[in-house]
Amino acid sequence: MAFSGHDITELWHQILQVDMQPFWIAVGLLIFSCVVRAYRWQLLLDPVEHIPLHNLFAATMIGYFGNGVLVFRLGELLKAYSAAQDRAISVSQTFGTVILERILDLLMVVLIFSVLIPWFPFEQEWLRHAMQVFSLTVFLMILFIGLAYKFEWLDVFEDKMFFQHGLGEKFLAIGQKVFDGVTIIRKTRHGFSIVLSSILLWGIYYSTTILILAACG
Q1: Pseudo-torsion of CA 206, 209, 214, 216, nearest 10°?
Q2: What is the tens place of the pLDDT at every residue in 120-175?
């Protein structure tokens, strides 16, 4: 079904034109990037619980698989569930660290944009503005999380009747665990390693893109 409506003969011809050496190097780099991502995740989780790298690598791969077959990127939740199995850390808190991972990725994208925007030859001005709006949105999101942590905005909900019993209480408890995961970076002793692994991760993605372009001619 994936190739429905395509000329299979032409598709196979195009595949045969691919230079396999850079292609397989790119595949190897992508697998290595999953190891780097699992290592960074391990550093983020460390203040709560030390989870072996191979377990987090497996959870990362499960997450990618889930994103490929499930809607709304539910693979991220599957990834958190897999990592938290038989662990002291809750699924909600683990999911919070997954969100934190994505925030770090967004920060790297914003950093790349900040470097490229002044020199990138935009053919369409709206694209430049879109990148600026995206960067501002990420900044405001991080600012909101920081303010919510500093002023303990979640505590306000504890006084509301709905959140004091039943389903509301459960929702609040889950929300607090997720927020704890998102803000766990404040407890880390691995700040430098987290930054370094993030830079390495995006360096791998850049190299992989170059190799795939070279493989496809």
Answers
A1: 180
A2: 777 788 888 888 899 899 999 999 999 999 988 888 888 788 888 788 888 889 89
DSSP class of 54:
H
Amino acid at 62: I
**Which single residue is written with the structure tokens 């002793």?**
189
Positive or negative: CA dihedral 150, 154, 159, 165: negative
Backbone angles phi, psi at 25, to 5 degrees: -65, -40
Q: Do the beta carbons of residue 51 and residue 87 sit within 8 Å?
A: yes
Q: How far apart are CA 123 and CA 55, in angstroms?
A: 45
**Structure tokens, 108:** 């790297």
Question: What whole-number distance in Å separates Cα of residue 22 and Cα of residue 40?
Answer: 26
Alpha-carbon distance of 82 to 185, in angstroms, equals: 21
pLDDT in tens, 183-195: 999 999 999 999 9
- Encoding tokens for residue 189? 């002793």
Q: What is the pTM assigned to this prediction?
A: 0.88
Closest CA to 175 of 157, 159, 161: 157
Rounded-to-integer distance, Cα 202 and Cα 199, Å: 5
How far is Cα 102 from Cα 22, in angstroms, rounded to an integer? 28
| Cα–Cα distance for residue pair 96/77, rounded to 1 Å | 10
Q: How far apart are the C-alpha atoms of 138 and 106, rounded to whole Å?
A: 7
Q: How many CB atoms lie within 10 A of CB 99?
A: 16
Q: C-alpha distances in angstroms, 2 versus 6, 12, 33, 63?
A: 9, 14, 26, 21
Which pairs count as long-range contacts for 151-160, CB under 8 Å and 24+ apart, including other chains? Answer: 154/179
